[in-house]
Amino acid sequence: MRTEVLRMVEAPRRSVERAANTRRVLAALGPQGRLTQAELGTATGLSRPTLTAILGDLGAAGWVTSGPPATDRHGAGRPARVFGVDPDAVLVAGVDVGVHTVRAVVADLTGTVRAHHETTVAAHAPGDRRLAVVQDVLLKSCHAAEVDLDRLAALCVGVPGIVDASGRIRRSTVVPDWSGRHVGHELEQWSARPVEIVNDANLAAVGEHWRGAARGTDDVVYLHVGRRTSAGLLLGGRVHTGRTGGAGEIGAIPALFVDNVKVLLGETAAADDARVPEVFAAAAAGEPTAAARVEDLASRLARSVETLAHVLDPDVMVLGGGLSRAGRLLVEAVDRHVPVVDDLMPPLRLGELADTAVTLGGVRRALLRAAGQNPQLEVLLDDAGTRVEGRVS
């Protein structure tokens, strides 16, 4: 009887110890490492028999691959096999639902994009039509990556609208039919995969924090400048949505509201007027009227920059969105109009990810969602050399 009790006590302890040792091995390998078993022994302090067992289990589960080294590391004699994490062990997708374009990417656990697909959609397409486009773009991205949809561990979709804590889109002026709708639930039923719905500006902030202009910071304001202006917020490295999901909706404040297209092209301009790039090009060439319009826009955007900087005091502010294609011209113009008092203003940087900011932010969030269900992935993400933008359950 006593022997049976001891076995019952020891079994969970050995299981916990084995899980901890497995995490040590994965952490030593990292998402892109290639090490021999001897090098892993040095890095982890684990015995050869323990490593052999763990590597065998990880290999059988599809987490680790082994093969000969690219070069003979040890001179004469039979070269030792090297082990590495298989990037394809986890695949996820990030989606950006824009006014005119829906984009999707499939990426592996290192964040490397394996496939991309995008398609245009009418600006006033009804909600069901836009949802069908999202599904089609996801399927075509998976086809391009040569994987089935059910191989994806998680999906994350960036949408133009306010998203509450349940994932319901509270309000979307771009896709009014989605207001009050649980689009994420519909996509989960269709795909049978975990789906997270996130405001697009917040996802862009995550993307720039992970792979772009805000790397290595904790508090980030991403100014999404398109037809209108909104902000994505990371505070303490975590997405900040506020009580109802509306944090960052600065365009809803009358004093900060700017119709960017009309400022650049006049009151009669349509929201999707294709002449906007021409104004920036003319301003860069020194054309007085175009330059004055860009300065007018910059002075208005500077009010939002100043307000957010004083309220949040972030490490960095990133200018992104469709109008950020104007590049340094717009960033430098906004900078000129932001008053600097006692050097308190944070740096204003041009976003580095352009049209990929939302989809890459979606990849990061999808990986975090998958990590919430898988401790092996969690340790690999923590080892990626970037702060984690909050756990996703």
Automatic annotation (TrEMBL):
Q: Which residues form the HTH marR-type domain?
A: 24-73
Query: What InterPro entries does its record include?
Result: ATPase_NBD, HTH_MarR-typ, ROK, WH-like_DNA-bd_sf, WH_DNA-bd_sf
- What family is it from? Belongs to the ROK (NagC/XylR) family.
Q: What is this protein called?
A: ROK family transcriptional regulator
Q: Which organism is this entry from?
A: Georgenia deserti
Q: What is the lineage of its organism?
A: Bacteria, Bacillati, Actinomycetota, Actinomycetes, Micrococcales
